């Protein structure tokens, strides 16, 4: 005879003490993980920032104004876009993104998590950093104007001027603040890069002969460069001083740093030459520039590539010295050219605008 309980369904087995402890441990671990994810990290996040068409307009003190204005010269209609690109930084010392946000940036190819010290060096206040970035933008705009006018054949003074002298440097007692360095060993210097190159070529084993102008009077002096941190230097800080033959106004608020120089220079050239250079194409780019038209490296190029993609660009001009950061990170549909000079950049833009063959230009993707 079979015996049955009143409820024939099987009864659940009572959980063991070990299982209860294991469940509590899992819950605690999850809570700890969540709390850790919400803690501030030692990183900030770089992501694509606003894109500005140097041929177009932008807000300036509440008014929509041209980024480039040349009031007293004949200018010509343009088409298409020559976009300069920016990077936005999320976070700052004391207000860094949490680990969950950093994790998201690591898995987002449009963003990068970088150590906070890389963007905000210790000992530099927010005010000092903002002032440095603003000064860099102002200097780069002046260099862009100079580079564009040199490219167009204008002749005007481009003075490499001593802005300060490093203590215990070989220049102490020889050079003075305000001196204009016109030549090194008989070779003219019209940009900071040309001065650096001439000093590097001279080396630290022999004195360099400098032709300078002090208070309007020409002088010849000798300074023996020294090697510091792997570079041959005179031990002076220098800045450029220009006397432009025409008035060019560049207006862009709340953007710092020097990386807009090349695109501003291209925009100036386009406005001062007949016919639209771009042929209606959207062309983006980035790079510093000096008055001799040399294009230099910039930061945040991967984010700028994605900014260009978001703005609808099919073409991208990148400093050749940044190509190693570009390979493997190019958005689909964008062709990236490696540029070393403003003349190269202009040739690329004009060829694109004419619908010509661009296969002969250097490409970061093929480097």
Q: Any descriptors?
A:
367 residues; alpha+beta; 6-stranded antiparallel beta sheet; 20 strands; 26% strand
Task: Write structural notes for this entry.
The protein has 367 residues and is α+β, with helices and mostly antiparallel strands. Helices cover 29% and strands 26% of the residues. It has a six-stranded mixed sheet. Strands 7, 8, 9, 10, 11 and 14 form a six-stranded antiparallel sheet that branches. A hairpin with a 2-residue loop joins β10 and β11. α4 runs parallel beside α6.
List the topology elements:
Layout: H1 17-37, E1 43-53, E2 57-60, E3 63-66, E4 68-69, E5 81-90, H2 99-106, E6 112-115, H3 116-119, H4 126-151, E7 158-165, E8 180-184, E9 187-188, H5 192-202, E10 208-214, E11 217-223, E12 226-228, E13 231-233, E14 236-242, E15 249-250, H6 261-272, E16 282-285, E17 288-289, E18 295-296, H7 301-310, E19 315-319, H8 323-326, E20 335-339, H9 342-353
Helix pairs in contact: 4-6
Number of strands: 20
Helicity level:
25-40%
Q: Helix count?
A: 9
Strand order of the biggest β-sheet: 6-1-5-16-19-20
**Low-confidence parts:** 1-5
Q: Given the helix and strand composition, which structural class is it? A: alpha+beta
The secondary-structure element order is: HEEEEEHEHHEEEHEEEEEEHEEEHEHEH
Radius of gyration: 28 Å
Amount of beta strand: 25-35%
Query: How far apart are the first and last residues' alpha carbons, in Å?
Result: 88 Å
Shape: globular
Rounded average pLDDT: 88
Q: Largest sheet, if any? A: 6 strands, mixed
């Amino acid at each position: 005879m079979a015996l049955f309980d009143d409820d024939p369904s099987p009864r659940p087995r009572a959980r063991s003490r070990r299982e209860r402890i294991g469940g509590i441990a899992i819950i605690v671990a999850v809570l700890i993980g969540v709390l850790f994810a919400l803690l501030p990290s030692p990183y900030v996040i770089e992501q694509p920032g606003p894109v500005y068409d140097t041929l177009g307009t932008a807000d300036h003190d509440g008014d929509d104004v041209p980024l480039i204005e040349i009031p007293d010269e004949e200018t010509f209609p343009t088409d298409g876009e020559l976009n300069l690109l920016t990077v936005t930084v999320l976070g700052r010392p004391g207000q860094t993104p949490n680990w969950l946000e950093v994790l998201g940036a690591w898995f987002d190819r449009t963003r990068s998590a970088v150590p906070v010290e890389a963007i905000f060096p210790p000992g530099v206040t927010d005010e000092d950093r903002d002032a440095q970035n603003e000064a860099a933008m102002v200097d780069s705009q002046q260099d862009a104007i100079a580079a564009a006018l040199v490219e167009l054949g204008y002749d005007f003074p481009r003075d490499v001027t001593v802005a300060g002298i490093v203590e215990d440097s070989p220049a102490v007692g020889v050079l003075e603040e305000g001196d204009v360095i016109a030549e090194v060993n008989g070779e003219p210097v019209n940009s900071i890069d040309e001065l650096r190159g001439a000093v590097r070529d001279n080396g630290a084993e022999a004195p360099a002969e400098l032709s300078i102008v002090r208070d309007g009077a020409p002088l010849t002096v000798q300074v023996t460069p020294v090697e510091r941190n792997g570079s041959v230097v005179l031990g002076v800080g220098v800045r450029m001083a220009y006397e432009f033959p025409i008035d060019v106004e560049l207006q862009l608020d709340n953007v710092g740093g020097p990386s807009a120089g090349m695109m501003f220079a291209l925009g100036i050239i386009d406005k001062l030459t007949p016919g639209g250079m771009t042929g209606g194409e959207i062309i983006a780019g980035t790079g510093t520039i000096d008055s001799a038209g040399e294009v230099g490296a910039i930061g945040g190029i991967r984010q700028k590539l994605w900014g260009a993609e978001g703005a609808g660009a099919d073409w991208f001009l990148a400093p050749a010295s940044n190509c190693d950061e570009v390979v493997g990170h190019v958005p689909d549909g964008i062709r990236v050219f490696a540029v070393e000079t403003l003349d190269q950049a202009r040739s690329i833009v004009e060829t694109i605008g004419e619908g010509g063959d661009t296969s002969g230009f250097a490409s970061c993707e093929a480097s």
